[in-house]
Sequence to fold (856 residues):
Amino acid sequence: MTSEEIYDQVYAMGRMGRRAALELSLLSAERKSAILLAMASSVRTNARLILEANARDLEAADARGIKGSMRERLVLNGERVEAIAAGIEQVSGLPDPVGEQLDLVTRPNGIQIEKVRVPIGVIGIIYESRPNVTSDAAVLCLKSGNATILRGGSEAISSNMALAKALQEGGETEGLPEGAIQLVPFTDRESVRVLAGMGEYLDVIIPRGGEGLIKAVVSMAVMPVIKHYDGICHAFVDRDADQEQAVAIIDDGKTQKCSGCNALETVLVDGEIAVDFLPKLSERLEMRGVEIRGCEVTCGILRGAVLACDEDWSTEYLDLVVSVKVVDSIEEAIEHVNHYGSHHSDVIITRSDERAERFMSMVDSACVYHNVSTRFSDGEEFGFGAEIGISTDKLHARGPMGLVELTSYQYRIRGDGQLKDGGRQVGL
Amino acid sequence: MTSEEIYDQVYAMGRMGRRAALELSLLSAERKSAILLAMASSVRTNARLILEANARDLEAADARGIKGSMRERLVLNGERVEAIAAGIEQVSGLPDPVGEQLDLVTRPNGIQIEKVRVPIGVIGIIYESRPNVTSDAAVLCLKSGNATILRGGSEAISSNMALAKALQEGGETEGLPEGAIQLVPFTDRESVRVLAGMGEYLDVIIPRGGEGLIKAVVSMAVMPVIKHYDGICHAFVDRDADQEQAVAIIDDGKTQKCSGCNALETVLVDGEIAVDFLPKLSERLEMRGVEIRGCEVTCGILRGAVLACDEDWSTEYLDLVVSVKVVDSIEEAIEHVNHYGSHHSDVIITRSDERAERFMSMVDSACVYHNVSTRFSDGEEFGFGAEIGISTDKLHARGPMGLVELTSYQYRIRGDGQLKDGGRQVGL
Fold:
């Protein structure tokens, strides 16, 4: 494949996507639901083909010596394919966000301005090894009336192709427009570069993957990119905290699923209670097998703690490791969170409502919590039904992104001949 | 100035801006209004200094031979300075968008999820020659709780410095945080490059200016950019149009102020009425001194029309020129608008509500009109009180951008110790 051939083929997909987006924007909620149900059923029917394709990906991965969680992410099995199908059915039943009237105003001159929720258009999804993203992303975009152009990683290319084919074939039986779900058949860097430059055909790119992928897409993209960066989440244990509750919230945040982006990475402890609180925390974390990397004060109190280095405060461990720092004040805690955090999810544990409100209004993160585990930063937990990710951006979508965040709006203005300058004379 | 010195100084401004943004986010609506009124009064008090600075800019412009509308944009006079001050007072009186509760949900587990409107943070404004943008942009950003880093063009640097100083000095008397409004003292390209790469300190960049400026910013920026591209706006005259109304709407759209981005550039006419309608349109436009560039059919009907070339369909004339095309159907009109338009503002003139709805739902533009002049695409006309521009993007803000579009939101979650996995055993 030459660069030129990749360019031509990806641009052809862009034109198809744009055409499909127009058709999709006009589909009724019922039609979209029917399409989704047919897609779910097609995934089930094609399970064997999907698993065979996945076996080819796994074989190639094994040949390249891919191991551990990298390999684990690639794996599909009967249960996971069923989960994909069930996920599609669930999205099918969610309320359709498109067409909602967001506002309706009649201006003094009689024009009526309606603000209506509409699909964004064509959404590019660039992702790495998890094949289920093929379905999750395409389905959420479809439900919200958008066309998708998917570009997955090379490790999962066979699985992705099989899944995309099942979705397309199933959907077409119920009227899925051609080009509504497309998978880029190239997995080299060049195809990402072409997508990122295709401003007239892609309205937004959502990269799903590590920081390297996101940064590469941002540096190339001419269209908006919705970023889902790391979660470097903090718990601040205030002097007025219910200490038992604090231990439980930190335990849950750190150990209930430490690979989640909403898992805790750093605990900040008010100096007034550090000597009392830290041993209780340490005891619980030790039971869970969590390594503590502490500041000097922490290490003075907890003899077993390792001394944290500067890098620890900005590391997303995604592992059974936590950094712990003793701070002098809530102000120092807020400053630390805003400086080292990733503006994702942070919690204060305190019985003081006044201090809780101060923390929440000054911490510049998508989700700020008072006496609740940060693990609730999740579209499902927020009641969105499903999520495409958790945005660490502040524009368009912040925090958990559901169907509504996959839409835009349009102003429709109706009148009977209103002119900006109605009093102007014509001619002499 | 070396690149390194520019880098250091712009980064220092970034850090200041970030600190100021936190302080601004906590200011009450009353405090912000008081600051704005003090700023307006300071602009009046400093009018002489501002005009002297402007005279230096004009002298330099004259020395470089800058003429016509380029020079006109630079000019300040007593009236324009008063308009700037009055504009600030007007913004001061607008409702404060910050702190609005957008949603409040209690989940089955008892956690309460509040969605609150918050400022975006630090906004970069990169603009060209108009010195009034210094004030307009800073003031709207301030009212919505944001810090601004302004980077104006070299032609207006003295005027911009004088205006920014007046705003800062006035604001400080009422508690404007230091760093809330900053003007980059450099006007070379390097300073734009540094701003565009300063992802940790700038949350968004809004370029105000020509396509060249916007494209340059987009290509360099690592943070979101809200784009205000050209307005290539269309009127489609349907076979069921009230033809007199159509002539009036096109006249208003083209000639009431042809330099506006919401002015009409292209007229599409249903083939069924072209022979009847085009002479009426031509007669009116001729009286206004508008040149018609027509498709072949148009030129067959209107002998005076110049034959349009391909480029005409995607040109924003901003002048007394209009391109006219006869189309076979509403579908062809929609396709033309979506292909050649800039997704800004387009109108259908028809007595058929059914066709109007079809046009409005299929034209992929920020503002779609039925029997109304496109010149109403404007924050003031929409009732926003003021606008920072008209976004041709689909994400975050689409169409006229007022104060609300200069905000983001944050989720504040309150509970009493809820855990993701409350039933998990500790130990053993």
Observations:
- The longest strand of chain A covers residues 407-418.
- The mean pLDDT of chain A is 95.
